[in-house]
Please model this.
Amino acid sequence: MKTYKIATIPGDGIGKEVVPAGREVLQALAATSDRFRFEFEDFDWGGDYFRAHGVMMPDDGLDALRGKDAILFGSAGDPHIPDHVTLWGLRLKICQGFDQYANVRPTRILPGIDGPLKRCAPGQLDWVIVRENSEGEYAGVGGRVHQGHPIEAATDVSMMTRAGVERIMRFAFNLARSRPRKLLTVVTKSNAQRHAMVMWDEIALQISKEFPDVTWDKELVDACTARMVNRPASLDTIVATNLHADILSDLAAALAGSLGIAPTGNIDPERRYPSMFEPIHGSAFDIMGKGLANPVGTFWSVVMLLEHLGETEAAAQVMQAIEAVTADKSLHTRDLGGEATTAEVTRAMTARLAAGAPRKAA
Model:
């Protein structure tokens, strides 16, 4: 029997509620299988760790994660700690430390969820957004001088490398090729950003020649927001820079019904290091500890984790359970207009998994 080593990092806020829910789902899934099991190690890094130690995670934290098969992450963000400290001290330290350069965010309207696009027929909003996850606008290059004086200046420099753009474009074209429509939209802003984004466009054209079976187009990021609302069926796979995809994927989640259902994977495609999977909703301190958090985004992140491990049948089993749960409106949490609690949705998921695939006889 295969044993997968999973690191769980609840982080901050409602991450401490949804990551344990995701762990319950993985444990319920393993109870139905004679092929694999999970070995979990929990890490208490985040805002509370910062208050105790002055850092969001220990300096040697990456070494503790390096031998894991995958990471299930909750959120980074604390109202009492500056956002740039929480982000760079935990999530980005892991993403960049393990070169998880492909951030993948699938989006579609799940059964039973009332999305705001009333003219959107079932199946017309089925996207996957590929976010460059290692450089660009979040490269961390810049600084501040003359702080507190009238001549104070601050810079954040978007750094793009040919190697970084080539590898994310190749990943996106490959992903588009694997999907039924074989359709890719490259998001840009090269009309205004005439250096790095022009290189981005040029490399997209270069890489496209390796994928003659993929139909692709180019769209300015501002126009893409309107296209996502007005012509959702014209999009399928989307690739964008670190900042552009960060914004577009939140819009995508809202159009699908709620940020609470949206998953993401921070992927090292070369599998040199463990990849990390997380819901996109953030720490949501306003509802922390109230049992109101929607765990569906974490459950869908578990699907992506299982797919990355090669357990495609198990991933499909969890996705079917998610769709059955969201189809039942009595199991909708507050963000979806319902009154169900985190625990109630989690119990429904684990019960569905237990009922759907009993353990095979040895």
Remarks:
- Residues 358-362 have pLDDT under 50 and may be disordered.
- The two ends are 11 Å apart (CA to CA).
